[in-house]
Design goal:
The chain is an alpha/beta fold. The chain has helices at about 10-25, 35-50, 55-60, 65-75, 85-105, 125-145, 170-180, 195-200, 210-215, 245-260; strands spanning about 110-120, 160-170, 180-185, 200-205, 205-210, 215-220, 235-240, 260-270, 280-285, 290-295. The structure holds S-adenosylmethionine.
């Protein structure tokens, strides 16, 4: 079917599909982003060889249409990401937040650190976190050694510390790419040579994340719209994801993140995102142009 033969998308059909997408994943398409939604819907309709958007809607809400629904959602996500994105914020994360977290945990003899990258796209964010935390832990260990034998060869994370990074997304294609952990040169620009040498293998013209870094990161599918989200995190990164949700959905997500964090846990959101005026359950921490939000604990 040529573009000129493509069926028209009526306002009523657009509304139905917009509502369905919002209910399924929280993504909200305002007037500015409606042309993008229309374009992606046209493509999927063509792919499915259907002759009206209403039939496409009927397919999406049917049991056999589950696969197509997840295909549509994949086509609607924006997956832009990079290593070491928002350097000022990552400095705050590594030098202030991790430092404080490790000190408090060591006092309590709790050696488990759990980080969640929610909306991880192709993996640059959780791998960046893994490299930064591995370094922060080794540096902390250097100044606060513990009487534990470290096995040889020395692991990235010094015993008895344990680091678990969960990285999740709604898009299976990006999760597969993230799991591969193989990046072309042009995506490596923000990674300085020290990190490249220690944490990547160069194979042909690509950089592959080393196995010991990959072992720290576990990739999984999670839709942030649902209520069943990973619990007991010390830190959550959810950067450049909420900006595609409307305010009501953002507020619901902030509430869920509050429950998914351990006491005194931190939430990191994107540069263009903010929790200001949205909640009184998080307190803003700002340092050298980096921003994070600390969970507020209710005093008994
Ligand atoms: C722009 S990328 C951000 C990647 C990374 N966090 C960063 O800041 O570089 C947004 C990611 O959020 C994911 N996403 C969008 N809606 C989601 C949802 N409801 N549940 C989980 N992930 C979602 C998209 O698939 C996409 O990979």
């Amino acid at each position: 079917m040529s573009q000129s033969e493509a069926p028209a998308l009526t306002d009523a059909e657009l509304k139905l599909l917009q509502t369905l997408v919002y209910q399924e994943c929280g993504m909200h398409f305002d007037d500015r982003r409606t042309p993008f939604l229309q374009d992606r819907l046209q493509r999927r309709l063509k792919e499915c060889q259907l002759d009206s958007f209403y039939s496409y809607y009927r397919l999406l809400i049917s049991q056999p249409g589950k696969q197509e629904l997840s295909q549509l959602l994949e086509n609607l996500t924006v997956n832009e990401t990079s290593f070491f994105r928002n350097k000022a914020q990552l400095d705050l994360f590594q030098k202030e937040v991790m430092e404080e977290l490790l000190r408090h945990k060591q006092e309590r003899r709790d050696y488990n650190v759990r980080i969640w990258s929610a909306g991880c796209s192709t993996g640059q964010e959780p791998y960046t976190a893994a490299m930064l935390v591995a370094d922060a832990m080794s540096y902390h260990y250097l100044r606060n050694p513990l009487p534990f034998e470290s096995p040889l060869p020395k692991p990235l994370v010094p015993a008895p510390w344990r680091l678990e990074i969960l990285a999740s997304d709604i898009n299976y294609s990006v999760l597969r790419a993230a799991q591969e952990g193989s990046y072309p040169e042009h995506q490596m620009t923000p990674v300085d040579y020290g990190y490249r040498l220690r944490y990547f293998d160069k194979v042909g013209d690509r950089y592959i994340v080393k196995r010991n870094v990959k072992e720290l990161v576990h990739f999984d599918f999670h839709n942030l719209k649902t209520e069943y989200l990973p619990q007991r995190n010390d830190i959550i990164f959810c950067r450049n994801v909420m900006m595609y949700f409307d305010e009501a959905e953002q507020k619901r997500l902030i509430e869920k993140f509050y429950r998914c964090l351990n006491p005194h846990g931190y939430l990191f959101v994107g540069h263009a995102e903010s929790l200001l005026g949205m909640t009184d359950k998080f307190q803003m921490v700002h340092h050298n142009n980096g921003t994070a939000y600390r969970r507020v604990e209710v005093k008994m």
